[in-house]
Amino acid sequence: MYFSKPTVTWGGLSIAQFIRHSSCIAVQLFSDPSISIPEAPSSHQFSLSSHPQPDVLNSPVRRRFHHFRSGKGFEAVNTLFSGVYPSLNLTWLGHKPQDLVVLIDTGSSDTWVVSSEFQCLDINTKVPRPQETCAFGKPYDSALGSFTNITSQKFSISYFPESQTLNGSMGYAPLRLGGLTVPNQEVALVTEAALIGDGFSSGLIGLGYPAITAASYRSNGSQAVYNPVFTTMVKEGIVKNAVFTLALDRVPRGTSSSVPAGMMAFGGLVSPRYYLPPFTTVPIEETPGIPGLSFYTMSLELIYDRKNGTTASGGTYQSIIDSGTAPNFVASAAAADINDQFSPSAVYNKTLGYWTVDCNAKAPFAAFKIGGKVMPMNPKDMIVRSLNGLPGFEDVCFSSFADGGDSVFIVGEVWQRSYVVAYDIGRSQLHFANRAPY
Q: FRET pair for 1, CA 20 to 30 Å: which of 10, 197, 236, 255?
């Protein structure tokens, strides 16, 4: 039977009429009309690199926001490498520029790179091992670069629960990111590592606040707070606007690391082609136990659908937005309930500390309500494949929701793939917009 094709309309206009009409309407960029942030200059925007294992779910610590002092030592608890980490090229200047692959982490504040002279240690016994055992990418060559050692300070950071550690020296170095040059940035040069890397990156750039830097004084072990790289850019006028923006792509397994995996901008927003306005704005809040601003912490509500057709609230609480953590860490009761809503249900693996799920399962609707706006997860990101590529886990899938205990929780990269996030240091705000389809 033949039916005439209906005319699709929007507000009484045909689609073609709507497009012509909407092109004449000024789009409100922020839900709060008092906010105005320009696009960053093209030289301050650069493509992110694709990680060679984009769907690996590593084991991040559940309470990575904790910093504690034990005796005279200072120890920062952070998340270990995750295969969905975004990465970029950092150029270390000196006698000869060196391009190094570093991971981008909004949940820590130190920029560190491993030295070509580093000592690799066994994670458990701390016995020296060949450098290749630690599986870093291209290291920093001290014969080519410039590094002015701060003799009074040292760098020490630990990654739990894997008990992996990095130790080294603090110093000043000239760095370049895209079209931005920071002539005298305090960085860490790792000379001792008890850590299993990813065979790809040789360091990390931390974009958090000064309060969570991991340098300490050699004399008494107390924290030596300093300005992380973006703070330096702002204070020295290297960027005009105290905003950086991340747009993380969803990258299929097997994608070449040379393929772009998103966009980052320092000093403003990324190109408009990456997002659908308006941006929703929330304040950056203090993290419990740490005076002042430290992590990018905000308040949100977790909501999700149950199999019986009802919608549940997983609670309203503080959560850290973190590009260095893969899954979403939520309250224990909510994590158990939401994982039961997969069809078939996800099953908790006590050994791994995650819920495993059928790779072809149907994921429930799940969203974070931020600033009054419901921001759903894409079902593609609810199920994560593999675990570090370990033998026996190649075909195992994991839920993207993990048990965060009863403290501050984490919004991970699995959610961020569907949104553009602007980190507004100047206003102490976070801005969120939907990603344009990609």
A: 10
